[in-house]
Amino acid sequence: MQKVEKPEKTPLKGKSQRVYSSYLFKRIHYDFIGKRKIAFIISIVTAVVGLGSLIIKGGFDLGIDFRGGTLVELRFERPVQVDQIRETLRTVGLGDSIIQQFGSDREILIRVERGISGEDASAKVIEALRNGLKDDPFEVRRVESVGPQVGEELTRQAQLALLFAIAGMVLYLGWRFDSKPAISMIVISVATILLSSWGGISIPLLTSVALIAVLVACVWFDLRFAFAAIVALIHDVIVTIGMFSITNREVTLPVVAAILTLIGYSVNDTIVVFDRIRENLRLHYRTKPFEEILNDSINQTLSRTILTALTVFIVTLILYLRGGEVINGFAFAMLIGIITGTYSSIFVASPILVVWQNISKKKSYAPKR
Amino acid sequence: MIVILLGVAVWFLYPPKDKINLGLDLQGGIHLALEVETDKAVQNEVVRAKDFLEKELNKDKIKYQSISIDADQHLLVQLADPPSESEVLKIIRDNLSHFERKNAASGNNLLVLGLEDKTVQAIKENAVQQALRTIRNRVDQFGVREPIIQREGEKRIIVELAGVSDPERAKELVGKTAELRFQLVRDSAPTQEELLQRHGGKVPEGTEVLPQAPAGKTGEGKPSRYYLLEKEAKVTGADLKDARTSQDEFNMPAVSFEFNREGSRKFGALTEANIDKQLAIVLDNKVQSAPVIRSKITDRGQITGNFTFEEASDLAIVLRAGALPAPVKVLEDRTIGPSLGQDSIRLGIQASIIGATLVVIFMIVYYKLSGLIANIALAINILLLLGALAGFGATLTLPGIAGIALTIGMAVDANILIFERIREELDLGKTVRSAVENGFSRALVTIVDANLTTLLSGIILFQFGTGPVKGFAVTLSIGILTTLFTAITVTKFLFDLMLSGRNVKTLSI
Asked: From B338, which residue of chain A is nearest by alpha-carbon distance?
C-alpha cells in the first residue's frame, strides 16, 4: 500500500503569495483510502450493532402515531409522585398506563396503550385526575390520541414516503452518474412505484426487494457510482434507526420526516464527493493511480464536507438541546443522520469504489463521459 | 443587477410580522378526525321500524310470535298464522315503504324485511351531512376564530379549532350526541336487579331501562337509580325552539328550553294526560331528571341536575344546534394546549437564533470579509423564505421552525462550496477576479445537484406528510429554493459589487 505523498507546496510567484486555503485543512492530507479496511470494519460493526439491536428488541419503538394509543402531557403546579397518579388512574381501570416524569418533576407524560380503553382515553384520564387529585391542579399541555385505523393509515403513508424517497434518489443517482445504463434503474424505480399502489402489498417488503434489485442491476451494468451511493444511503438509514433502537427512543412521525431529510442529505454529501472524484478522474486518469485520485478528491472536498456538516450539526444540536420535548426525537435523528451521512460519503461510498475498481476486469478507470 | 435588487426589495415589503399563518402546534388548538357511525344511523332506522310495526300489529290485533332484528339489520317477523302475512305486507307497503321483502314466501310464516340498498345509502349520506351541519352549528355558537370543519371521504369529518383555551370542553361539545327525549316513567329503583324483579324478571314490552346520569362529564360513577321508561318518546329535542342557561330553584345552573309550535302541542297533550306521573328527561340515554307533572305544560321547561355553569351553557348550545344523527367516533385527536404552543414558539425561535448566530460568527471567523458577504446573503435568504411563507399563506409549525434552522445550516453550504473553490483557484495563482468567476461557475453545478436531493426529500415529505410534518416540508423546500436563488444571484452580485472598479490584489476569504 503506497503511502500517498503530501501535495506540493504552492508555487511562489516572485513575491510571497498568501496561501488561501485554510491552513488547517492544507496540513491535513489524510490517507482515507489507505485506511479503508478500518473504515469497513467500523461501518459494518455499526450497521450490525444497529441491526442486531433491532432484531433483539423485535423492531423499534413505534410511537402512538403508528401504533395507536393515547398520550397525555400534563404540567402540575407542584411536584407529584408517579405512584399517586397511577393509583388514581387505577380507579378508572387505567392503572396499566405508562406514566413518566420528564423535564422537571412537575411534568408528567401518560401513555395509554390501544386496547386498554376503546375510545379516546384522554378525557377519562383527565377527568379521573381532576377528581382524584383535587389538591394538585394541573394544566393539560397536550393530548395526542390515535385510533387504530388512523395508526394504520399513517404507518402506510410513512412506508410509502420512504419508498418514494429511495426510489427518487435511485432515479436521480442513476441519471446523474451513469446515464445510459441507468435505464434499468429507471425501470425498477418506476415499477416499484406502480406496484406500491396495489393495496395488498407489504411496503417494507417491496422496498427491500426493490433495493436488492437495484443493487444487482448496478453490479450487472457496472453502475459503480450509483451502487456506492446507494449502499452508503442504506448504511445511514440502518445506523440511524439502529441508534433509535439502542437508545430506546420512540419513532414518531417527525422522526420519519427526519429520516427522509437525512436521506436527502446523505445523497447530497455523496454527490459532492463523487462529483469531485469524477472531475479528477477526467483530469488525471492517465497520470495518477486510482487510489491517489480518490484520496486527493476526498481531501479536496474535505473542507467543504466537514464545514457543511458542522454548520448543520451546530444548528441541529441547539434544536436538540434547547428545542423542547416535542421536537427532540426529530433533532436526535437529524444529529445521527448528519454524522453518518458525512461519514458514509468518505468511509463507505469511496472505499466501495476502490474495491470495485480492484475487482473490476477492466483495469482502465477512464471516465465514461 | 438592479432588477434583482428591486425584486428583493419587493419581497421585503411583503411580510408584515403577523402575516405568517401559525400552525395548531404553535397557536394551541385542536385537530380532530371524527367518523360518523353511519351504521348506527341505519340501525336506528330499523329499530324505529320495529317499534312502529309492533304498535301497529297490536293495534290491528294481528297475531305474531315475535319481531326481532338480526345482525344484518333485517327485521324478522315471525307470524302466528299464514293469512296475516298479506295484512302485514300491506302495512309495510303503506307505512314502511322503504323496506322490501328479502325472503321468498316459504310457508314457515317468516317475513324477512330489509331496507332497500339505496335507502341505506341515503340514510348514511344524510347522517354525514347532518353531522357536518350540526357540528358547524355548535362550533359557530362556541365562537372559535376561523374553524375548519371539512368532510373527508365517505364518513369522516375533520375539525380544526385554533386558539381554544379549554380544549376538553370544545371536544365534548363537538362529539356529544345530545339526543334529548322525554319519556314517561313507569317505575324506578336503586338497582337494575330490583327494578326487573318487580316486573317479573324481564323488561316489559314497549319499555326500556335506563340509568340516572351520574355526576361528572364522562359519567364514571355508578348510577344512583334506574328507571323503567316508556320507550316511545312523543317529544324529543327536535321539538325545541330554543334553549338557554338559567337557574333552578336552588340557584344552581340549569337549562331552560322552549318548544316550537308542534312541540308545544305534543308536550301539552302529554302532560295533560299524565298529571301526577313522572316524566323523565333523557339525555343521551341517561336520565337527567324525572320531575313529577303537576299540571299541563305547553311551552317551556327546565333541565336540572348537577351542572356547572359551563356544562349548562354547553348543553344549551348543543340543544340549540340539534342532536347528532348518529354517534361520532374520535379517530384521531391532536390537541396542543395554549401554553405549550407559546413555549414551542419561544424555544423554536430561540434555538434558531442561537444556531444562526453561531453560524454567522463562524462564517466571519473562517472566511472573513467573504464570510460577511455570505451572512448578508443568508439574511436575505431567510427574509425571502419568510416572505414566501407569508405570501403563499403557508402554515408555520414547530418542525417548520426546525426547517428554517436547517435551511440556515444548508444555505451556508452553497457559500462554502463557492468559497472553497475560490480559495483553490487563488492558490493556483489565478487573479482575484478570475478566481471568483471560476469559483462560482465550478461550484454551481454541484450546488444545484446537492440541493436537488434535499428538495426531492422535501417534496416527498410534503406529499405524504400530515400537519406539523407538512409544515416542515414546506419550510425546507421553500428554503432550498431561496437558498439556490440567493447563492446564485445575491452572493455573486455582492462579490461583483465588491470587486467592481478597483483592481483588487487580494481577497479577504
From this structure: A141
Alpha-carbon distance of A305 to A346, in angstroms, equals 9
CA dist A39 and A31 (Å) reads 12
Total Cβ atoms within 10 A of residue B281:
21
CA B324, B179, B144 angle in degrees (round to 5)? 50
Distance from CA of B302 to the nearest CA of A (A): 27
The yes-or-no verdict on residue A26 having pLDDT over 60 is no
What was the pLDDT predicted at A369?
Answer: 44
Verify that A344 and A272 share a domain, yes or no.
Answer: yes
Least confident of A40-44, A55-59, B53-57: A55-59
The answer to whether residues B80 and B198 belong to one domain is: no
Enter the DSSP assignment of A346.
I
- What is B293-327 written as a DSSP string? --S---SEEEE-SS--HHHHHHHHHHHHH---SS-
For A163-188, what is each residue's pLDDT tens digit? Answer: 888 888 888 887 777 666 667 777 77
In chain A, the residue whose alpha carbon lies closest to the alpha carbon of B24 is A142
List the 182-211 stretch of B: residues with Cβ below 8 A of A.
none
C-alpha cell, B437: 468567476
Closest by Cα among B191, B130, B475 to B322: B130
Q: Which structural domain, as residue segments, surrounds residue A298?
A: 23-62+151-359
pLDDT, tens digit, for every residue of B373-403? 888 888 888 887 887 887 777 888 888 888 8
Residue A366 lies in a domain: no
Residue B509 has its nearest CB partner, among A20, A126, A323, at A20
Do A311 and A208 fall into the same domain?
yes
* Minimum distance, in Å, between the CA of residue B476 and any CA atom of chain A: 9
CA distance A20 to chain B (A): 5
Which of B314, B417, B428, B461 to mutate: most A Cβ within 10 Å?
B461
Counting one residue from A and one from B, how many pairs have CB atoms under 8 Å apart?
241
Provide the CATH number for the domain around residue A197: 1.20.1640.10
pLDDT in tens, A249-308: 888 888 999 999 999 888 888 888 888 888 888 888 778 777 788 888 888 888 888 888
Mean pLDDT of B133-161: 88
Query: The pTM is what?
Result: 0.82
- Out of B408, B426, B476, the one facing A20 most closely (by C-beta) is B426
Q: CA-CA distance, B404 to B396, in Å (whole number)? A: 10
Q: Kindly determine whether residue A127 and residue B217, on different chains, have CB atoms separated by under 8 Å.
A: yes
Residue A363 confidence (pLDDT) above 60? no
Query: pLDDT tens, B9-43?
Result: 566 556 555 567 788 888 888 999 999 988 888 88
Residues A247 and A206 in one domain: yes
Distance from CA of residue A295 to its chain's centroid? 25
Q: Which three cell numbers stand for residue B502?
A: 478597483
Chain B's closest residue to A271, CA to CA, is B450
- Spatial contact of B52 and B206, defined as CB atoms under 8 Å apart: no
For an interface test with B, the pick among A15, A72, A260, A344 (most B C-beta atoms closer than 10 Å) comes out as A260
Looking at the fold, whether B350 and B479 belong to one and the same domain comes out as: yes
If you measure CA to CA, which chain A residue comes closest to B418? A304
On average, the pLDDT of chain B sits at 82
Convert the pLDDT of each residue in B63-99 to its tens digit.
Answer: 777 888 888 888 888 877 777 777 778 888 887 778 8
Tens of pLDDT, residue by residue over A88-105, are 888 877 777 888 887 777
Residue that the C-alpha cell 316513567 belongs to: B185
Check which CATH number belongs to the domain holding A79 and give it. Answer: 3.30.70.3400
User: Residue B356: its chain A contacts at CB < 8 A?
Assistant: 315
Residue A3 lies in a domain: no
Matching residue, cell 482502465: A364
The nearest CA of chain A is from the CA of B334 a distance in Å of 5
